[in-house]
Structures are given as structure tokens and as C-alpha cells.
Amino acid sequence: MKVKISKKRFFPNTLTILNMFLGFSSILLIMNGEYIEAGFLILLAGLMDIFDGKIARLLGISSKFGVEFDSLADVVSFCVAPSVLVYNIYCGELNTIVGSIFSFIPLIAGTVRLAKYNLESDEDNPKSYFIGLSTPISTVTILAFMYFNNKIVGGGFYGDPRLGLSLVGVLGLLMLSPIHFPKAPLITFKSGHSNSLLLIILIVSSFSLIIWKGFALLPICLGYIITNTLLWVYRLRTTNP
């Protein structure tokens, strides 16, 4: 039985290792000025992050080790990598210390966010939402801003640094906030109306990305963040009039 369980754990742990490797590889690309390619690897790391936990739960092999190992991989891909990216793209004209402070936001906010998540997570009773914006969504939003501006202007332009750094600051606050953001839905229409609605939104968003590519990612990310922030405020006001 122990041998069978260890073999089952091999697959989700391999996805976690791939997540970490892709994040590490993206950092190397960023250091070489290959920002678009680095962003693509981070997006792939995000896919690995989605599926490793879901597969572990599907196989019934979720564990505290898996949670901790996944978080360590996330630190590389969605905390260190975006901080290095922000420093290289948006902090070039700033004083080194000031640039370091701004680019440190994804790293410090992300690691605190992950630590809080590990303390609050309950594998026996998993929640359908995150408390605070997840580190992958925060990172993808930064990439979306970069891709959107590069698609419109081109020529190595990745957005106004002032807007980019403002976005980084807001995302840092959202990661540490008490706002509820829904997790990725289960790939089934048999898990309730909320899951079915989220799954439909996910499918429509995926097709939008296929059709409009870099133009669609930023509106999708901002729509997800703004909509769920407004819903959280609305629920807060209705439950505490």
C-alpha cells in the first residue's frame, strides 16, 4: 500500500517540480532581457500550479508536505520571478534603493500571502475561495499589463513604469487583503451552480485568449479582480449593515 501511495504522489510532485523549474528558467530569461519568453514560462508554471493540487486531491493523496512543497515552488515562480521582472522592466530610471523597494513588493507580499494560506488551509475541509489575491493571479496580472502594452505599441514597450509600479503596489495590497477570490473551478457541471458558472466563465475566457491573445489577458485579470472585490464589499455591507 505504501508503495502504491508513493507512486501516486510522484505525478503531482513532478508537476510542482516543473512549476519551480519553469519559474527558475524564467528568471534566467529575464536576466537576459527576454521578457516575453520569461512571461510565457511563468504562465506555464501557473498551469502546473493549478493541476498539481487538483490531481493530488483527485487521487486522495493531499498532504501537508504537498502544501508546503507547492508553496516553496510558488515562491520561486510567483514571488521571486515577478520581482526580478518588475525591477528589470519598470525600475530602470529609479534610484537603486527605490527600485529595489518597489520590486520587492511581489516577493514580500507574496511570501506573506503564502505563509498565511498554509496556516489557514484545512485539507479536510478545503475552501472554494482564497483569502487575498493568489500569487499566481497577481503575477499573471503583471504579465498581462506587460503583454497588453507590448501588443499595442510594440518595439520593446511594456507599459508606463508609473502605471506598472502603481499596479504592483495595488496587487501587493490585494494579496494581503481579506477579500475573497474564487479558486479555479472543478472541470464538471455537477458540483453546483457556482462551480458551473465559474467553469463557463473560464471556458469563455480561454476562448477569448485563443482569439485575442495578449489583448484579452489584461481585461480578464482586471475583471476577475474588480468583480470579486466589489462582490466582497457588497456581501460585507449586507451582512454588517
Describe the structure.
The protein is mostly helical. It has one domain: Four Helix Bundle (Hemerythrin (Met), subunit A) (Up-down Bundle), CATH 1.20.120. The protein is 78% helix and 2% strand. It contains 8 helices and 2 strands. It is globular, with a radius of gyration of 18 Å. The N terminus is likely disordered.
How would you describe this structure in keywords?
Four Helix Bundle (Hemerythrin (Met), subunit A), 241 residues, single chain, two-stranded antiparallel ribbon, mainly alpha
Write the layout of secondary structure elements.
Layout (H helix, E strand, L loop, with lengths): L1 H30 L3 H24 L5 H27 L5 H25 L8 E3 L3 H19 L7 H16 L3 E3 L10 H20 L1 H26 L2
Antiparallel strand pairs: 1-2
Helix pairs in contact: 1-2, 1-3, 2-3, 2-5, 3-4, 3-5, 4-6, 5-6, 5-8, 7-8
Q: CATH top level?
A: Mainly Alpha
Q: Would you tell me the structural class of the helices and strands? A: mainly alpha
Name the strands of the widest sheet in spatial order: 1-2
Order of helices and strands: HHHHEHHEHH
Q: Give the end-to-end Cα distance, rounded to a whole number of Å.
A: 54 Å
Rg from C-alpha positions?
18 Å
Regions with little confidence, pLDDT below 50 for 5+ residues: 1-5
Domains (count): 1
Give the CATH H-level superfamily.
CDP-alcohol phosphotransferase transmembrane (TM) domain
| Helix-residue proportion | over 70%
Largest sheet: 2 strands, antiparallel
Strand runs, count = 2
CATH architecture: Up-down Bundle
CATH topology: Four Helix Bundle (Hemerythrin (Met), subunit A)
Strand content: under 5%
